[in-house]
Amino acid sequence: MITENDKLLLTRKGIKEEKLNKQLACFASGFPYLKLHAAASIGKGIMQPDAEAQAAYLKAWDAYTQEAGHRIVKFVPASGAASRMFKNMFAFADADYDVPTTDFEKAFFTNIHSAAFYGALNEACKRLHHKDIDALMAEGSFKAVVRAMLEPEGLNYGALPKGLLLFHNYPEGPRTPLEEHLVEGALYARENDGTVPVHFTVSPEHRALFEALVKEKAPIYAAKYGVTYDVSFSEQKPSTDTVAANPDNTPFRQKDGSLLFRPGGHGALIENLNDIKADVVFVKNIDNVVPDRLKDDTVTYKKLIAGILVTLQQQAFAYLQKLDSGHYTMDDLREMLQFVQKQLCCKNPETKLLEDTELAIYLRQKLNRPMRVCGMVRNVGEPGGGPFLAYNADGTISLQILESSQIDMNDPEKKAMFEQGTHFNPVDLVCAVRNYKGEDFHLPDFVDPQTGFISHKSKDGKELKALELPGLWNGAMSNWNTVFVEVPLSTFNPVKTVNDLFREQHQ
Q: All domains of the chain, ordered by start, with CATH?
């Protein structure tokens, strides 16, 4: 089934034949639904620290950043193109009518003057049509404005990633999400010597644009906040691409007979995260940013979840040192078990049957792994995954972030759990990725390979099945210690469509 050309392609991508066969087998077998125990809620897997506890955690984070030798990185997935953000405007450009007709189109043109990119778009219109936006709209040339926004000869927003678009207005000029993340980094991820490491994952075709923007803007914010930026970039590795299959699960071949590989989704970024040398890593999506006037909540809660992380990690490290020394009592083991069950929400009914030595081995295994603290916001009907208590392969119940595709919606009980969930995942994570000896965890070892999913796509008019790797904050971090903390809705302001930029939070 595998040709010599296939073998050359696999070598070039850095994919072993065994891995290819495993992927093809996944198409045939599919992925099992996860077994749910319950939706996580306040007091049942989601922390809601009171004012006193919050103050202690904020203090813990401040103390951590003051200590020398801690590497803190802000990690921002930024490779996705913004084309989905403009889906409605692409549809208008191709529509058989010329004036804004749908509510979306009308809202866009009503609010266009308040867009942060208005000035740049106005210049593009003058350059292309020798008229400004108002003159074009007055004569009914609405599509000319849209095309100047989307197409390469104008702003090219239809093909650029979100990180490079102008999102927010300021007196000194508009800002992109990339710049907002640089500012955020200075406010909560500063190391004790004033360095702010920020890492962006980007697509190869946009890397030069990102690098140029950082070169232009980083010095401005470094001077403003008295910090030094250490900005780095990476791309999804070709070795994380996944093979496409025909509906009958045989390998999909392109017109020239070659195998078709596709990017493996954001779960591929576990490899990029694994390459980051750091003690603590903040993870947050590129489009979830707000202007400075609204940043206080974001900064406070980022510091809060980081304070919870380093507090819990300190405790876990002390227990691991005790276990590895061999000097512990049965009471010590009971205390550690309480910590794993209560603080890390990881339970196994079998632990009461374990002998002392077996219990010590179990505790060491559960304590000695990466840890993440995730902000969760109240569910207000936003789509996306949510926090659950789920069963793992070893019989333990632990906290997981699940997407609807991982849940059997044909099972009324499971469907009800999903629908009754009180919170959802805004992708607000802080991660500890080194062990108590200061060595890096090898993060791919903690992925649950059974949590990928299959989607249906087409290429050249032919149907195909595509394989998505376990998502970065779903299956890719399945075997981490996980803690959920309630954070306010004000910390979640994603930009899914261009009209979201007109919401009060982005003005």
A: 34-80+166-506 (3.90.550), 87-160 (no CATH)
